Each structure stands twice: as C-alpha cells, then as structure tokens.
Amino acid sequence: MSRPIEFFAPPLGVEVVEQSEYQLTLRFNRTQISASQITAQVLNQLEVADFTITEPDLESIIKQIYNGALEVRTLGAEVLP
C-alpha cells in the first residue's frame, strides 16, 4: 500500500488474516468468492502499490484435510468390495 491502511471493509467470505500499517493479508474460500472480485474490492477501497496472490502450499492443505478443516468430496465415485 502506498498510504497507510486506515480502514478496510472486507467483502463477505473474506477474512483479514494480518493487517499492518502498509500491508494486508486476506484469506478466502474460492468456492464462495473469486480472486478477481476480491481484487476489485481491494483496489476500490485502497491505494495499492503492490499486489500478490498466492496459493496455499500442498503441505498446509493436507494438514487441514487430516485435521478435519477441509471437506474432501468425491464426485460419482463408488467403492466396490
């Protein structure tokens, strides 16, 4: 951010993970809201100097699955004896 963040209203489905004077880290579920929708709302609310989108690493996703935080769905799969 090129100016300090005074106020940011995250869109529905978006969680502010970390916020400092010049940096904002968000988390979202992309089945609920798209990265482009979030980007548009951030750019409409704040003066942005640099913008980065990162995917979670595979290790953290696997940990979330094993801890029950993520639901694993199978489509059209049937287990045969």
Compact description:
This protein has 81 residues and is α+β, with helices and mostly antiparallel strands.
Describe the 3D structure:
By secondary structure, the protein is α+β, with helices and mostly antiparallel strands. The chain is 25% helix and 14% strand. It has helices at 35-45, 58-66; strands at 14-19, 24-28. Strands 1-2 form a two-stranded antiparallel sheet. 0% of the residues are buried. The model has no long low-confidence stretch (mean pLDDT 82).
Task: Give the secondary structure arrangement, pairings included.
Layout: E1 14-19, E2 24-28, H1 35-45, H2 58-66
User: What would you call the shape?
Assistant: elongated
Uncertain segments of ≥5 residues (pLDDT<50)?
A: none
Structural class: alpha+beta
Order of helices and strands, N to C? Answer: EEHH
Instruction: Tell me the Rg in angstroms.
Output: 17 Å
Number of strands: 2
User: How many helical stretches?
Assistant: 2
Report the sheet with the most strands, covering strand number, pairing sense and barrel closure. Answer: 2 strands, antiparallel
Which key features would you list for this structure?
2 strands; alpha+beta
